Amino acid sequence: MPDFYYILKPMLLIAELVAALVGLYYLITRNIGYWKYFSFYLVFIALQESFWHFGFGIDPNVKQNYYAYFGIPVQYLFLYWLYAFNSLQMPKLFWSCVGLYLLSYIPIELWLKKLNVLYALNLTIGTVILMGLALLEFLKQIRDDSILNFRQNKMFYINAGVVLFYVGTYPLFCFYEQLRTRYQSIWNYYFLYFLLANISMYLLFTFSFLWGTRGSK
């Protein structure tokens, strides 16, 4: 691993823990409505990442399978729910996104049976759906003028974090093996962006609690 990994990886874990603690604080002390589920989500992420950060001697293949079939899908499905079901208030769009995303597992299980292919296909479909939802959210904020008061808009911070990380790192994970094995220098720079964008996303999630208002969408 590049030298910056050993500095930024712990910083990422700290950012995740801070976001979870702030979310937990608002959950306990405030009536935050359905945003309580966002608090639960951040706590889940912090616990998940803390567990796998230390490893505890578990076989790396177990970790890969965990993220492929549970850890990553939970993140995508929750964000679909937050965007489509709640912010955009389009339940049918939410279920369509869920169905399309889950269908990405079928060709892998039936024919390919390769985890690296699963990551590429799963992340491609998952991120493309998320890109569409992020665009719809941005257009919604423009239409209702909530973007003018972005500092109090919780979804502004969340959307900015999602675009920065999920959309920005999409090419890295789509072509992960090719970059890592053939273009190491490009992979190093992109992996640096991955860590910085991930840290920034959880900081923006934290700001959504600190500065966003409860009723904002």
Automatic annotation (TrEMBL):
Keyword annotations from UniProtKB, A to Z: Membrane, Transmembrane, Transmembrane helix
The answer to whether UniProt assigns keyword Membrane to this entry is: yes
The chain's coiled-coil residues are none
TM region(s), chain numbering = 6-27, 34-54, 66-86, 93-112, 118-136, 156-178, 190-211
Entry protein name: Histidine kinase N-terminal 7TM region domain-containing protein
